[in-house]
Amino acid sequence: MISYLLNLVLRIVAALPLAVTQCFGGFLGYIAYLTSSKYRGLFRTNYAQALQANQLQPQYLKAIPGSGMLLSDSLWIWHNPQQALVLAEVTNWRLVAEAIDEGNGLIMLCPHLGGFEIIPRILANHFPATILYRPARQKWLNNVIESWRAYPNMHFVPTNLHGVRQMVRALSRGEAIGILPDQVPSGGEGMWVPFFGRYAYTTTLPARLAGRKHIPVVLFSAQRKGLGQGWLIHAERLPAFAENTSVAATELNLALEKIILRAPNQYIWAYNRFKHPSGAELPPTQ
Questions:
Q1: Predicted confidence pLDDT, tens digits, the chain (286 residues)
Q2: In a domain, 175, yes or no
Q3: β partners of residue 237
Q4: How many CB atoms lie within 10 A of CB 120?
Q5: What is the rounded distance in angstroms from the CA atom of residue 188 to the CA atom of residue 77?
Q6: Which parts of the chain fold into alpha helices (H)?
Q7: Is 264 in a helix, a strand, or coil?
Q8: Sheet holding 154-158, edge to edge
Q9: Does 273 fall in a domain?
Q10: Cα–Cα distance for residue pair 105/101, rounded to 1 Å
Q11: Is residue 146 helix, strand or coil?
């Protein structure tokens, strides 16, 4: 019953105009910040350190609701995919088309920023896309998310060996795959490298998949243009990763930092990016 009611409420919110849904998300961002000390602690520490390390002044009154809007943007995009595509302005699609035309597939990287859920739908309108995701721990929540996320030409696979194999097959067919590069991987599947001045356990999967075939890797962002105005999609093709795994992970984080700092008030700062996953070695001394 609880899952049914929650699903109903979310669908009602997602059916509202985008600007109203985003205001709801911003409100939730403030509620989470004010009522959860854990959320607030992670948010303040991650946000302040990242900005101050880059000589930028934190803007909490913009960043707190901006973080909450990640949820509302996702809900609205899932519920209104065609309307969302109309509101997505892609600045350099030719770069993406040229990469996929090489015939080796495409590795799509989408950090948790702005309306990031629109990006795989844009690609899926042109060619098949296999997206790596981590299932929710609660079965009912996972069922809700999977039903909402469904979209033609998009195939979701879990973050395990079976999912990785499916992604390799997709690349061999010349298709696109999608990875959330700022998500903490499971122990044994990452490296401790700097991210905004602190060691973060970072995925090595993009570099391993790109491998010797030099599969193109494109980093995307979906910056929110304004309340109810949609998103500006930017794509940047990354240079070939270094063969050294640690160097490659460092290169990935540097690229992420650069794209996040273009719209720092729209990033998911309350995510525990610097946690120690079970099974991973201890991080180096800071």
A1: 666 777 788 888 899 999 999 999 999 999 999 999 999 999 999 999 999 888 899 999 999 999 999 999 999 999 999 999 999 999 989 999 999 899 899 999 999 999 999 999 999 999 899 999 887 676 766 677 777 788 999 999 988 888 899 999 999 999 999 999 999 999 889 999 999 999 999 999 999 999 878 899 999 999 999 999 999 999 999 999 999 999 999 999 999 999 999 999 999 999 999 999 998 898 887 5
A2: yes
A3: 218
A4: 23
A5: 34
A6: 2-14, 18-35, 37-53, 60-79, 81-86, 93-101, 118-124, 139-149, 161-172, 205-210, 245-260
A7: helix
A8: 88-90, 231-237, 217-224, 106-109, 176-179, 129-133, 154-158
A9: no
A10: 8
A11: helix
- Which domain does 257 fall in, by range? 2-266
- Bridge partner list, 191: 202
Q: Answer yes or no: is 242 within a domain.
A: yes
Length of the chain: 286
Burial label, 139 (beta-carbon count in 10 A; 0-12, 13-18, 19+): exposed
Asked whether residue 275 is domain-assigned, the answer is no
The CA distance from 116 to 73, in Å, is 8
Instruction: Give residue for tokens 């913009």.
Output: 62
Q: Which residue has the tokens 């979906």?
A: 222
Sign of the Cα pseudo-torsion (242, 247, 248, 253, in order): negative
DSSP labels for 154-173? Answer: EEEEESSHHHHHHHHHHHHT
Q: Which two tokens stand for residue 268?
A: 């998911």
Domains identified in the chain, total number: 1
